[in-house]
């Protein structure tokens, strides 16, 4: 792992930016080609309009996303990743790979939580070995 003391605050800021609730899912939708507000919203279950609007504004303010208003009737608004946003592709891909290796599927996590609640113990954390299980 790279060690750069001068980047600590920038690293923290970057983690907070992309790690905010729903931001990763919004970025994934944009990487998959969704550009219209309604299409992004439709791909992310349980995401409210208010939260989607807030997150898109944050990403736009940071220069990760560009908002384009098309002069059509009715007016269409599209969101696209900027060069800064596109540069997140390897980061998002690495996080997806990490999650696939280390995070149990939702059904397994729910089962673990239910079992732990019955037994009064914390749920087990998935263990990853060098053999790739």
Write the layout of secondary structure elements.
Blueprint: H1 8-19, H2 23-31, H3 37-43, H4 49-61, E1 65-70, E2 76-81, H5 83-86, H6 89-102, H7 106-119
Structure, explained:
- It contains seven helices and two strands; from the N terminus they run ααααββααα.
- By secondary structure, it is mainly alpha-helical.
- Strands 1-2 form a two-stranded antiparallel ribbon.
- The chain is globular and about 60 Å long.
- It starts with 7 loop residues before the first helix and ends in a 14-residue tail after the last helix.
What's a concise summary of this model?
55% of the residues lie in helices and 9% in strands. By secondary structure, it is mainly α. Strand 1 (65-70) and strand 2 form a beta hairpin.
Properties at a glance:
disordered C terminus; single chain; Arc Repressor Mutant, subunit A; 2 strands; two-stranded antiparallel ribbon; mainly alpha; 133 residues
Number of strands: 2
Uncertain ranges: 129-133
- Tell me roughly what share of residues is in helical segments: 40-55%
Largest sheet: 2 strands, antiparallel
Secondary-structure element pattern, one letter each: HHHHEEHHH
CATH architecture of the domain at 5-87: Orthogonal Bundle
> What is the CA–CA distance across the termini?
24 Å
Query: What proportion strand?
Result: 5-15%
By CATH, the superfamily of the domain at 5-87 comes out as Winged helix-like DNA-binding domain superfamily/Winged helix DNA-binding domain
> If helices are DSSP runs of H or I spanning 4 or more residues, what is the number of helices?
7
**Structural category:** mainly alpha
CATH level 1 name of the domain at 5-87: Mainly Alpha
| Sheet with the most strands: spatial strand order | 1-2
CATH topology of the domain at 5-87: Arc Repressor Mutant, subunit A
Shape: globular
Return the average pLDDT rounded to an integer: 86
Whole-angstrom Rg:
19 Å
